[in-house]
Specification:
Bound molecules: nicotinamide-adenine-dinucleotide
CATH architecture of the largest domain: 3-Layer(aba) Sandwich
Number of domains: 2
CATH topology of the largest domain: Aldehyde Dehydrogenase, Chain A, domain 1
CATH class of the largest domain: Alpha Beta
Helix content: 25-40%
Mean pLDDT: 97
CATH superfamily of the largest domain: Aldehyde Dehydrogenase, Chain A, domain 1
Shape: globular
Structural class: alpha/beta
Largest sheet: 7 strands, mixed
Amino acid sequence: MTTFDVLNPATAATITSVKHSTVAETDAAIDAAAKAFETWRHVAPADRARLLRRFADLVDQHLEELAQIEVANAGHTIGNARWEAGNVRDVLEYYAAAPERNLGKQIPVAGGLDITFNEPLGVVGIIVPWNFPMPIAGWGFAPALAAGNTVVLKPAEITPLSAIRLGELALEAGIPAGVFTVITGSGSEVGWRFVTNEKVAKVCFTGSTRVGKMIMAGAAEQVKRITLELGGKSANIVFADSDLELAAARAPYGVFDNAGQDCCARSRILVERSAYDRFLEMLEPAVKGVKVGDPNLEETEMGPLVSAQQLSVVSSFVPEGAPVAFQGTAPSGPGFWFPPTVLTPASASDRAVVEEIFGPVVVVLPFDDEADAIRIANDTAYGLSGSIWTNNVGKAIRVARGVEAGNLSVNSHSSVRYNTPFGGFKQSGIGRELGPDALLSFSDVKNVFIATE
Ligand code: NAD
């Protein structure tokens, strides 16, 4: 049996080792999920709802344990990790209300009665990245199960521990074996098997755009349904007429949260030229004030990067001679630490301006007017999120409509709420998660006509 060592990113110490499943074991888990689908799809909606509520209750009862797992395995701050476990509970509760409200339509037609059903797809394969192991898992499995599908879920190799625990809690809640299976292993073996195994009806993938493209191409072989949530290079657009002090105070938290390992990170701050110098002056103390350190401490605002590999990727964006405006602090010694870093590149084609960094590094760029801000914001292959800071309501709406991204916030950096849709434009993805319509992403619409004449 091959195993994979799981590390604590804050100390680089090994926590445990986790099994890497084989392709044959993946097929067995998919077979069990396909078998379980035949009964799960017929469980009465109210009973399916009750089981999901019980699952939510158990997550709530184990919230602190799940949070501690994430602090140890992903280096998330304890405050964030509690929010993440609470988010799994909330998403389960939200979609527990859905099976009994999974309404079809009655459509007026000649000569009979026409009705639609939202039929579950079958087995849904969910592939999760390491940056938000718990929430991203929940955004997939909760609505998928509510719609009547069964789920096989693969966490990222380096952060499997919270998903393994959630799988145990689901069984404890009474969700039948085979309905929700967590299987650990590599992306190229277990994850890819979700794409190639014909018994998997849909793949829900969150991760890099590179792998997302491979999954899309592979799924085409079987016209397999997909949802893709991929990378981002989002803009935080600050107009001179905004509350500049507030915009500068909040900007670090729009990009450095989770050490910048957030697909929604506002990693390009665009500032109206007339306010540029003043904004940078106020940004400096805000960045230097971010509390970076032991993620177990309540007051810590930013922990380490997730792995040595991620540290080396992020470091490559700040080579000797990089245009560093200023940096915050980070612990030295063991663990994968990188300080919050602000760059002011001279060129729009600088690698740090164009590529997703997925670490605590942000670029600040000036713009001339509203049209220029929209042009720069859209000058990227990505389109996931973004923020607009202005006190002019009309301008806020115009810019929000002009920016090609799925999730925008005005005078705020909020991106993800379980009750609103989330997903990307352009190469940030396909499909939407969360919100009132998520069950439709895990169903196919069936139309039935019954003649009355
Ligand atoms: P990744 O694409 O390397 O891995 C993501 C998951 O896919 C892991 O579970 C991995 O094992 C699996 N995988 C890898 N190769 C595979 C293959 N050939 N077939 C099937 N599965 C495979 O990404 P990562 O480095 O773990 O995550 C970081 C990336 O994820 C960033 O680019 C980030 O922007 C993106 N992300 C996007 C969102 C979003 O909602 N849009 C959310 C989180 C992360």
